[in-house]
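Note to self: keep these together.
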Amino acid sequence: MSMKENVKLVKDELNSEEKFIEGFVKVERIYKKYKALIFALCAIIIIAVVGFSVNSYITNKNKVQANIAFDTLLQNPNDKDALETLKSTNKKLYDVVIYLQAKKENKDVEINVPFLKELADYQKALKTKSIDELNTLSMQNDFLLKEFAIFNKALILTEQAKYKEARVALNLIPSTSKVFELASLLKHHLLTK
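Structure:
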C-alpha cells in the first residue's frame, strides 16, 4: 500500500467516526430537549399495557364467576348468592335466568335483552292467538323465529277459516327455511278448502 492509500483510508475512518459522533450528539440534543416528553410517552405506554392487562384479567374473572353462578342457578334457581353474583358480573345472563324463572312460573317480566324480549312477545302472541302481533314479529328481518311466526299466523288464519289469507302467509316462507316442509303440508291441506 502506498502512503496516499493509507492516508485516504485513515481519512475515511475518521470521517465515519466523525459521522457517528455527530449522530450521537444529535440524539443527545434531542434527548435533552424532549426528555420529559419521552418519559411521559413511555409512562403512558406502560400504564396502557398494565391497564389493558388488568381489564382483561377482570373481564375473564367476571366471565368465569358469571358462568359458575349461571350453572348454579340452573341447578338451584333459589340460590340468592348466585343470583346476586350473576347480576353484578353479567347482566345479560342475569336477564336470561330471570326470563327462565318467569317462564317456569308463567309470569310476565320486563326483559331488556332484545332476543329474549322477542321470544317472550312471540310466546305471548301464540298464547293469545294474535295475528297482528305475529305479523309484527314476522316483519322484523332479524327475528330468530320469523318463519315460525309466519307459519303460526297461517295456522291461526286456517282455524278462523280465512284460507286465502293463510295461503298468502304461507307463500312468504322461503324454500330454504326449516319450516318449509310444514308449510307445504299446510298448503296441501288448504288446497281442499
